[in-house]
Amino acid sequence: MATKTFTVEELSQFNGQNGQPAYVAIDGNVYDVTDVAAWQGGQHHGNVAGKNLSAAILKSPHGKGVLNKLPLVGQLTE
């Protein structure tokens, strides 16, 4: 179980740029999308890693089902 917590500011550092891992937050959970081909360079269909994408995923064609395939790395704190 993931135990690391991220503030919004800390999460923003994981943007997939300059060798950084790419993390995204959905519903308070932080997922690692670094190794997902569609997230190369920290971007995916206009979305940018290092952010809370809880609203954006609701508009995506794949929905939240894709989250089950991603490594959970922590929790987002408000």
From TrEMBL:
SMART domains referenced in this protein's UniProt entry, alphabetically: Cyt-b5
InterPro entries: Cyt_B5-like_heme/steroid-bd, Cyt_B5-like_heme/steroid_sf
Domain of life where this protein originates: Bacteria
SUPFAM superfamilies: Cytochrome b5-like heme/steroid binding domain
Cytochrome b5 heme-binding domain boundaries: 6-77
Gene3D superfamilies, sorted: Cytochrome b5-like heme/steroid binding domain
Name under which the protein is recorded: Cytochrome b5
Organism from which the protein derives: Levilactobacillus zymae
